[in-house]
Specification:
The protein is α+β, with helices and mostly antiparallel strands. It has 2 helices and 4 strands; from the N terminus they run E-H-E-E-H-E. It has a single domain, classed as 2-Layer Sandwich (Alpha-Beta Plaits). Strand 2 and strand 3 form a beta hairpin. The chain starts with a strand and ends in a 6-residue tail after the last strand.
């Protein structure tokens, strides 16, 4: 069954282009990645939403996702409340709506 993950970020002032550039080739050879988008959710706030063939493909991609995060970690602000620099969630689709 299809799975999704979403990761929220807040970028340090003046580093938005660096953040976006770090994602230019993300996922091009990640098995099971169906589709991914970066959306701007506010001032220096972004969210990546990705669709995966299934939860196993998502789990297998975690080392790649962590390596990618490490490549741009310096561009991110701590989100507070003990979250660190990311707020990530993921899971299988339980009810497709459209």
């Amino acid at each position: 069954m299809t799975a999704f993950n979403a990761v929220r970020f807040r970028v340090k002032p003046g580093l938005e282009q660096d953040f976006l550039d770090a994602h230019r080739n993300v996922g091009q050879d990640w098995p099971g990645l169906v589709h991914a988008n970066i959306i701007k959710t506010g001032d220096r706030s972004y969210c990546i939403i990705a669709e995966w063939a299934d939860a196993e493909a998502l789990a297998q991609a975690r080392p790649n996702m962590i390596a990618t995060l490490n490549s741009f970690r310096a561009t991110l602000e701590d989100l507070g409340r003990g979250l660190g620099v990311t707020d990530a969630v993921s899971g299988p689709v339980v009810m497709p709506l459209r």
